[in-house]
Amino acid sequence: MLTRGETIRAIAGGVSSLAGIALFAAAGVAALLATGLSQAASPLLDPYILGVLRFTLLQAVLSSALSVAVAVPLARAMARQPRFPGRIWILRLMGVPLGLPVIIGALGLIAVWGQHGWVNRLLVALGLDQPVSIYGLTGILLAHVFFNFPLATRLLLASLERLPGEYWLIASNLGMKPRTLFRLVEWPAMRSQIPAIAGLILMLAATSFTLVLLLGGGPAATTLEVAIYQALRFDFDPPRAVALALIQIGMTALILIVLQFFGGAASEGATLGRPPERPDGQTSAARLLDAGLILPATAFLLFPLAAVVIGGLQADLLRLIADPMLHRAVLTSLLIALPAGLLAVLLAYSISSARFALLSRKGQPMVFERMANLTSALASLILLVPPTVLGTGWFLIAGPANMDRLAPFLIAGINGLMAFPFVLRVIDPALTSHRERTLRLCASLGITGLNRWRQVDWPGLKTPLLTAFTFAAALSLGDLGVVALFGSDQLVTLPWLLYSRMGSYRTDDAAGLALILGLLCLFLMVLGTASRTPTERASP
Amino acid sequence: MTARMHFLISRLPLAIAAAITLSAPALGADKELTIYTYESFTAEWGPGPQVKAAFEKTCGCTVNYVSAADGVALLSRLKLEGAATKADIVLGLDTNLISEAKQTGLFEAHGIEAKDVSVPGDFKDDVFLPYDYGHFAVVYDTQTMKNPPQSLKELVEGDPNQKIAIEDPRTSTPGLGLLLWVKSVYGDKAPEAWGKLKNRVLTVTPGWSEAYGLFTKGEVPMVLSYVTSPAYHIDQEKTERYQAASFSEGHYIQIEVAGMTKGSHDKTLSRDFLRFMISPAFQDIIPTTNWMMPAAKMSKPLPAAFDKLVVPSKTFLMSADEVAANRKAWVEEWLNAMSLH
Amino acid sequence: MDIRLQKVELSRAGKAFCFDTLIRGGMITALAGASGSGKSTLMSLIAGFDRPQNGHILFDGIDFTRAHPSERPVSLVFQENNLFAHLDLRTNIGLGIRPDLRLGTAEKAAVSHALERTGLGGFENRLPGTLSGGERQRAAFARALVRKRPCLLLDEPFAALDPALRIEMGRLLLDLQQETGVTVLLVTHLPDDVERLASEVIFLKDGEILADETTGAFLARQEPQEIRNFLGNRPPR
Predict the structure, then answer these.
(1) Looking at residues A347-358, what average pLDDT do you find?
(2) Are strands B222-226 and C15-23 parallel, antiparallel or unpaired?
(3) Is the ipTM of this complex over 0.85?
(4) Residue C89: how many CA atoms within 13 Å on its side-chain side?
């Protein structure tokens, strides 16, 4: 029930965002291809690449499935226990892995799960002498679950919290057993989000590079991303890199399309924002079960982060904090991360608005609906374009002379694009249910345009928008891949400073910087959850 | 691809070239020297700041650094920029990259008589001059490793429960170094050696930083690094806990080099810098900032920490052309040997 | 069935509530008061979503203070979201008979009958989203019908409906109440509803009962100010 003008504006906004993303990616790729023909005689799909492709997809599918499998019961437990002690801090901590450079997270994981990690030391203390070795597929999956289950949990939790509070009271009054409630209410709500979430994690795992090499234990564990890096950096064969990137995009797109059919459209009731009371979570059995899920999951998340903190405390923190290099790096990081976050939110908001405008028109053919749904999923494929490829392409377009001036914009731009798919997962469901709730009323009262934004949309969407923004900013804050392409001594971000200290034996400094970076992320997450009140919690 | 897209793409380099010409900085006024190098060279604790200050004292010019992530990224950047590059000097390639670097046609012979240069392995080149070197070595933790391997053979055949972290030759120079080291010692038997060594390899990291991070976190008792690595710990952390193992077969060497570009706008200044680079004023800076061995005479003795380092009995070095010709095949060989179960 | 609240006390978020009253069986009692006066809390206590810190809640003299919500002899209808939006009406209403949804032929017939009775005959396969607001509330009544609980708690069930529809729904409620003899507690903010539907009124202020009397006595009140304000909302006749 948008006005004609609103519909057209929304669709135009979404189309230009999509076109912007596609053009940005295409320009980078085209510039790269223009450098010349492949010098290599080796065929593209040799047994090596085929093996790599198989492993990439295998570990990505498993990582995604495992993360979701952990997140579904956990999100349900968190939703059922709205007054769990420290709940808001658990949610905030769940945002931290997003902003940690993978190498830091990986070292934290190794401190816990490694050969001489806490787990193995405990096992030895218990009299077992065979240490658990995580190197190999196990380690890769462990790391991918560590990095991704918090995100999945928060997104699924949001889908549960968007359900009207009356549901839980009615279910309790009707005497629905937890199993029935899960089957009839909770699972359908989560299921509608799972294809998108699983797809997101799938893409992240498919493009994983450092984690796969570091924990994979040997070259049998190699992703296409490694082959792309190798083609571009060591062999300097841009066409091959582009071709491999296209294979990566194509294969993953296929899986994403299949995933689309798994989900169902979410239909939620309108709500006056009754604070969710969960009488079904108040039985002793439910409390015990939920605590039994929340506590180990929190420990799994917390211990590696604690290892990062402990490592950081051993550094000379006072000297680090007084270092003007750090101040500059923090400032640079924020100056890149905040615009990147804003860009990601704007892209997601406009695409999501357009999708809603398309879908809310009555008498839409089904094909159209599928297409609208698919478009936003396909827009997320930007995640699969390796930053090396995008970055190198845009390096060519910008030209060496302009590099120093353009680099910050390019880094923020690419970071924003890479964060956009995450942000979309936060904003899209929230925007859809917000619109469904308010559209008729707005139309009947004639509230449109800027007024609607000020009076209705901003108050209603403040929380998810802020959450999305802080997610995106955290992602950009932890970025190392893109900044490594453009970074110079003029442009040092916090992860770049950290990595360069690691690269010159200064591991203590690096650990201290990791702690500072982690705290910065946590601070962002606190900001992102600041506007959560008991009555307004439908946001991850 | 449609005809129109062909057209667009074929026009792209032109557009890029135009953009570059338009925004090229005005030359003249003050003498400037632009050095392309890698990031840890220009870091505040690296040699960069001191080198800049020392050279600017004598040259009456301004030194500008442009840094890439590492030597490989440096070469990629050069290839991408082509003749439009702003670089006068490229500093930070290693011997394995020389052949590829020359193929770009961007470099010019230095024409400097380098009689003061002395690096093991008799490296000589008319385009690139060495400024430091380091032998690859297995560095071990004396607290957890009482009997370190005495040779590459012992490393390969030793107790598979004593693990080592190595770097990936597909993504890092030390990784490639180890590959060439094993090839130098084992020749055609290299795949068999890798097949055995595989069981001792805890993991293969994308770069040196990750492997060394695992090592100093105590996750693994051995790591592939440099003979000079212990010098950092002795000099800066006052600990002899980390030591390099001396291998009886000898050690493969990494030599870091610099060259001047054809497009350099002030070739006299570029040559002055290269001469400065092999003079004591530059060389004095290297050991305690880059933690590598100086490639030419210093004005003072090496810092005490360097006296305690292992001195390789023999140096392995393959010619740049041999490496360039065989790298792909050898990496493939390595992949197969390491991936077999 | 009588609902007795015996010195029921609860404090929540710094607010204290104290209720002591008898809601008499077989009639409609209206529950009114300013927002925040404790209407929802009183409903929650009776339904069992909140447990009192002191006092007892008895249904026909039997103590249910500690009973699980589903064990209490009450059905609930809220202002909205009474139906699970992704489940069709048969399922939504069937849940009132068998919360595990194992519906036999007899149960299915009961669902159809209840739909018929509330004017939704043949709507078994419809999703709530395709119904009007009034139809959704009818469906909620249909579920209360099939549950056959002796008490019905209604939390502003007509608040989202337009005036004509509200009157129509009120009539349906009166019919159903007379037919089944169920005890109804109706939360409302409209004096109109009180007058048309209720026999007795409980008026709350700041967590306590300010008035508890017949509708006639309540409507005749000139004081206190709170009740005058409430009654002042009544459109002139």
Answers:
(1) 89
(2) unpaired
(3) yes
(4) 29
Of how many residues is chain A composed?
Answer: 540
Mean pLDDT of chain B: 88
For position C100, which CATH number holds?
3.40.50.300
On whether the CB atoms of residues A420 and A341 are closer than 8 A, the answer is no
DSSP state of C234: S
3 state SS for A314-381:
CCCHHHHHHCHHHHHHHHHHHHHHHHHHHHHHHHHHHHHHHHHHHHCCCCCCHHHHHHHHHHHHHHHH
Cβ separation A164–C71 shorter than 8 A: no
What is the Cα–Cα distance from A144 to A70, expressed in whole angstroms? Answer: 12
CATH number, domain A49-268:
1.10.3720.10
Mean predicted lDDT score pLDDT of chain C = 90
Q: Is residue C70 part of a domain?
A: yes
Write the CA distances from A170 to B212, C9, C76, C77, integer angstroms: 58, 24, 7, 8
Are A277 and A537 in contact by the 8 Å Cβ rule? The answer is no
Average pLDDT estimate for B195-205 = 94
Domain that holds residue C211: 3-231
| Torsion angle, alpha carbons of C195, C197, C202, C204, to 10 | -70
Counted across chains A and B, CB pairs separated by less than 8 A come out at 173
**pLDDT tens-digit series, residues C75-107:** 999 988 899 988 899 999 999 998 888 888 999
Q: Is residue C101 one of the residues assigned to a domain?
A: yes
pLDDT tens-digit readout, A278-304: 888 888 899 999 999 999 999 999 999
CB A351 within 8 A of CB A18: yes
Nearest to C81 among A189, A264, A269 (CB): A269
- Distance set, CA B212 to CA A503, B165, B226 (Å): 8, 8, 11
> Which residues partner with C57 through β-bridges?
C5
Question: pTM for this structure?
Answer: 0.87
What is the distance between the alpha carbons of residues B250 and B136, in angstroms, rounded to a whole number? 10
Q: Which of A173, A264, A266 has the CB atom closest to C69's CB atom? A: A173
Residue C236 placed within a domain: no
Cα A263 to Cα A373, A374, A387, distances in angstroms: 11, 12, 30
Whether the upstream peptide bond of residue C224 has omega within 30° of 0, thus cis, is yes
Q: What is the pLDDT of residue B142?
A: 96
Cα separation values, B163 from A143, A505, B201, B220, C76, Å: 21, 21, 6, 6, 66
Q: What is the largest CA-CA distance in chain B?
A: 68
Classify residue A275 by its DSSP letter. Answer: P
Whether residue B63 is predicted with pLDDT greater than 80 in this model: the reply is yes
**Gap from C203 CA to chain A (nearest CA, Å):** 22
Torsions phi, psi for C78 (to 5 deg): -95, 180
Please, which pLDDT band fits residue B11 given cuts at 50, 70 and 90? very low
Question: Taking a C-beta distance cutoff of 8 angstroms, is the pair C177, C187 a contact?
Answer: no
Domain boundaries, chain A: 49-268
Q: What are phi and psi of A437, to 5 degrees?
A: -75, -35
Who among A169, A264, A270 is closest to C49 (CB)? Answer: A169
- Look at A171-185, A369-383, B256-270 and tell me which has the smallest mean pLDDT: A369-383
pLDDT value at residue A402: 78
pLDDT of residue A273: 53
The structural domain count of chain C equals 1
Could you read off the pLDDT of B206-220 as tens digits, one per residue?
Answer: 889 999 999 999 999
CA separation for the pair A462, A285 (Å, rounded): 36
Query: Which of A149, A148, A194, A196 minimizes the C-alpha distance to A351?
Result: A196
Per-position DSSP letters for A196-223, written without gaps between them: HHHHHHHHHHHT--HHHHHHH-STTS--
Distance of CA A292 to the CA centre of its chain: 26
Q: Do chains B and A touch (3 or more CB pairs under 8 A)?
A: yes
CA distances from C149 to B233, C152, C158, C176, C183 (A): 79, 7, 21, 13, 9
Is the Cβ of A272 closer than 8 Å to some Cβ of chain C? Answer: yes
